[in-house]
User: Fold this.
Amino acid sequence: MEIRRQTKLPHQQIGAYREFTRQIDTFARWTVLPWETESADLFIKLRRDGIRIGTMDLKIACIAMIHDALLLTQNTVDFAKVPAEV
Assistant:
């Protein structure tokens, strides 16, 4: 069985690199909130209080709560289970 690799000419790669650069520029403007002790402590408290949603969703909720950040999601079913105040 012969494996053929499709090689693009350098000029054919320009569009892909342009898009890659655009995406990096977009991500560079984002603020990434940290996962820290306060977030971890809240995570443990909410688990002990019986909040049962996905681990990563609960971590996201805890980070947003600790930093008093607005959390936008389409996953209202799970995030509605997290109390607005703790």
Remarks:
- The chain has a mean pLDDT of 92.
